[in-house]
Amino acid sequence: MVEVKFQGVGGQGVVMASEILARTYFEEGWYPQCFSVFGGERRGAPVGAFLRISHEKIYLKCDIERPDHLILFDESFLDENATARHLMPGGIVLLNTGERHRSERCRPYTLAEIDALEISKRNGVATLVNTAMLGAYVRVTGGVSLDRLLKVIENTVPAAVEENLAAAKEAFEEVVVV
Q: Which of 89, 97, 113, 117 is the most buried (most CB within 10 A)?
């Protein structure tokens, strides 16, 4: 089983990203389970989403405490000590950042960086960075194909479909593993 945690703020498309990724895995033969956590405020308030995927049916009904992958839609959520403590050994952190953190320090996880905000703006979807983050995630993890992700985006996003497809493709090419 693979567990993924998404963390961001309202307006970035965190919940929709978890749903798109769950559907992508489902269409590639996996069993997904996704759920989200957010308060009454939406835009700007912290939002979390969780995804479990497995080749077998999932019967767990609890929170994800130690994910295999952590997708941070906002750089303010990166706390290297907390990340290392809560992420499974060998896990991947995908960080949306405009600055590169090319730290030479040894980490117990892999850090991948993408400027999803800039990519999203260039492609006309403003601060909605979900499809760019998913394009980068697919490249870094290799868990599902980019083609499948693009088909799901095409059939799922309610507006600006071509723009979202372009953002996902561009992020797939630009993500950097530090």
A: 113
